[in-house]
Amino acid sequence: MAENREVKIQSEIGKLLLRESRDREKFIQKVENLAARLGDDLYPSLFFTTAHLEFEKKAAKRHWKEVMRHWERMSLNVKREMDFRVALLDYFIDINKRIRNPKIIEIKIFQKTQQETLVDELTQLYNYRYFIKSMDQEIVRARRYHSPLTLVMFDVDDFKHYNDANGHLSGNKSLRRLAQIIRNSVRNVDVVARYGGEEFALILPETNKEGGLVIADRIREKVERSAFLKGEKQPLKKFTISGGIATLNVDAGRASELIKKADQALYRAKARGKNQVAFYIDEKRDYERVLVALSGRLTVASDSGDIFQVINISEGGLLFHFQKALAVGSILHLFLNLPERKRPINCKAKVRRVEEVKKNKTYEIGVSITQIREPDKKALRRLIHIFKEKKAE
After folding, report:
1. Within this chain, do residues 143 and 252 fall inside the same structural domain, yes or no?
2. How many domains are there within the chain?
3. What's the CA gap between 314 and 290, in Å, rounded?
4. 3-state secondary structure of 257
């Protein structure tokens, strides 16, 4: 299973407690080395693993220093080395008084119990509870390091049909097989979870929207090529999945909104025919878009000399086809040319979405206009009015 950062930290703490917990100086040095490598997330995990206490990072680091001082005093008083866990327990019972009725449990048993509350029994992926916790943590981390974060939601196409035709036992086997494919297709830092039923979630740290599309579509293709029991009897003649993608700060700023947007993108992929991956698109338009029926009359060129085939246009943006993908967020300098105009309409636009059009191997590019002079703005408005009249004829 792809390990989450927190699981790695808890694993390191377990090794440290097993080997060094009676050597105070060595233990402190090892903890500080781990903190330098893994960050201050180490301290809350240390107290949660050893005492099942939950602290914010600042509070956990403060308690760590207090426990170290208490450990030193206890060792001097009894004139022998004392185990870290004894000092920790004494500190939280008699000094801090956070623990009132302690219960001793073997760490391996605790970790097994903890795993059972975080792992989905059927697929052995992380469960919904762990997914939500990880989303919050990864968003905090992405903001701290100004790094991208993308969420992918997958759903099995026509799963009810599969269950009705093959039975729930076969349905469960197919979900386990699907979970294995997703798990084996991602990095250790990625988080794969069963969101619920036949829906799965994939958190991709340090991954932008285009990177998310590459990963999600690779997983979709692997599923399509894989053998599933009686998959050929599905409506699409094979066992398939659809996916939806949303990216932090591009589509949403909070975990709940990001999940909602990825889910909307997923069902957009379903509506387009299934067995595909779709980006989230804001269906609300600031301006009315006009279909360019006479596409040959309007051409759009960039300052690099590229020519785009326009699909539709509004006062706020354009939608066009291009033979290669453009980076979401990139800025284009565009020139809108019409035979009736001596001078092109000049504007700058930001790429908002990019989607592959498989049937003709091009890309659908959506851009919003970010900079345009007032005379060009008026000319664009007149142009849209012309297209409206043409459409009404």
Report:
1. yes
2. 3
3. 6
4. helix
What pLDDT sits at residue 109? 46
Assigned domain for 316 exists: yes
pTM of the model: 0.56
Tokens (6 digits) for 297: 């009359």
pLDDT at 379: 82
Instruction: Assess whether 262 and 295 both reside in one domain.
Output: no
Tokens at 64, concatenated: 């760590």
- pLDDT at position 297 is 44
Same domain as 297, residue 272: no
Q: What's the confidence (pLDDT) of residue 53?
A: 82
Instruction: Please check whether residue 279 is in contact with residue 354, taking contact to mean a CB–CB distance below 8 angstroms.
Output: yes
Q: Are residues 129 and 107 in the same domain?
A: no
Domain final position from 117, 132, 167: 117
Instruction: Looking at the structure, tell me whether residues 212 and 154 fall in a common domain.
Output: yes
CB 371 within 8 A of CB 334: no
Q: Are residues 139 and 157 in the same domain?
A: yes
Question: Any long-range contacts for 85-89 (C-beta under 8 Å, 24+ apart)?
Answer: 85/17, 85/21, 85/50, 88/47, 88/50, 88/51, 89/51
Long-range contacts (CB closer than 8 Å, 24 or more residues apart) made by 57-65: 63/91, 63/96, 64/31
pLDDT digits 0-9 by tens, 269-294: 888 789 999 888 765 544 555 555 43
In a domain, 284, yes or no: no
pLDDT at residue number 295: 43
SS3 255: helix
Rounded CA-CA distance 288/280 in Å is 19
343 alpha-carbon distance from chain centroid: 44
Q: Tell whether 223 and 156 lie within a shared domain.
A: yes
Which of left, alpha, beta for 53 (phi over 0: left; psi -120 to 50: alpha)?
beta
> Which residues of the chain are modeled with pLDDT < 70?
1-7, 101-117, 282-305, 338-341, 359, 386-393
Residue type, 179: A
Tell me what pLDDT residue 284 has.
52
What residues are paired with 149 via a beta bridge?
Answer: 205
Does residue 83 fall inside a structural domain? yes
Domain extent for 335: 290-392
Condensed to tens digits (0 to 9), the pLDDT of residues 142-156 reads: 998 899 999 999 999
